[in-house]
Amino acid sequence: MVLTTAVLLRKAGRWRSNFIDQVRIHVKGGAGGQGHPAYGGKGGNGGDVFVKANKNISMKDLKMKRRHVAGIGENSRVRALQGSKGNDVIIKVPLGVCVATDDRHVLGDLDTEGPKVLVAKGGLGGCHDNKWSGEKGQGGNIKLILKLIADVGLVGFPNAGKSTLLKALSRSQPKIASYPFTTIRPQVGIVEYPDQRQISLADLPGLIEGAHMNYGMGHTFLRHVERTKLLLFMVDVHGFQLSDRNPFRSSFETIMLLNKELELYKPELTRKPAILALNKMDIEGAEECLQETRKLLQESDYSSISEELRPASMIQFEDIIPVSAQEGHSIDLLKDRIRSTIDEIHQREHQQDIKEQANNR
Q1: Do both 42 and 135 map to the same domain?
Q2: Which residue, of 248, 268, 288, 311, is most buried by count of CB atoms within 10 Å of its CB?
Q3: How far apart (Å, rounded) are the C-alpha atoms in residues 169 and 151?
Q4: pTM of the model as a whole
Q5: 189 part of a folded domain
Q6: Which range marks the domain in which residue 121 is found?
Q7: Residue 13 belongs to a domain
Q8: Is residue 15 part of a domain?
Q9: pLDDT tens for residues 321-352?
């Protein structure tokens, strides 16, 4: 049975509600304690509210409590002229959370355990400067936005074979079926090598045309692409059609569309290193499709592409590798190429760090 676009979008909407990658909470710093003007005693400052990453926390945990208020500063007393500071509150979030205000101003990114982000400062305790009256703490709403951390992000339209490839490359056991939108939430697999080297690879919910406008899984997908070091484009070499109500796209057109969706969401994504895997090479007619796609990419021939499908900036692929995820053809080659590209990226980043350190001396 062929699923219609409307049905697919409804299913995507249900899946969006099942996968939580953004939570909005209210935070408030504690009020400062009252000062003691007769003896010059200072009230304690109100407690602060921080956000800190913890690998044992999930986004679902954050939905259990939506309001976080720090402790009130202690009042100054004759026997304790300096009031104690109110208790701080630390909100634990998963690794990879971006902390932002309601208007999308980023307060901090929490990619590792340890660092904290101050989201609400406690009020100043009562003292001479504020006429001995403790001040209110900062308060407001913040958004905790999860962006997956993975070395490699799989990019492709539904049913391109991403989940099958993830299973072939890694220890992950994603749900696999012969219909679009099988991946209902991001799956992260670990690609292991004989020398114990590990590379993380994320299979993300399939894009559809218009993802940059938040159609389908839209921003939910594209948000997770941002933190990957390498993009792995997965394209059916025979082309793609979402449903009988959608136009058929050749593999070359599919590549252009994927490029365009990334570009319209955030132009800098097109400057990420990328590898193109042309899948389903085990199906009859694949070789002819492969040669035609290679030719169009090498010649940058856009004559067959309508103007609205053409990206302004074309991704430059590190390599183009024909594979069959289902049969396992060329999987080892792709696996090795992923590693060598990641190593090259790390080397470039290391050299850039050395250069920046030298310039700062």
Answers
A1: yes
A2: 311
A3: 14
A4: 0.70
A5: yes
A6: 21-146
A7: no
A8: no
A9: 999 998 989 999 999 999 999 999 988 888 88
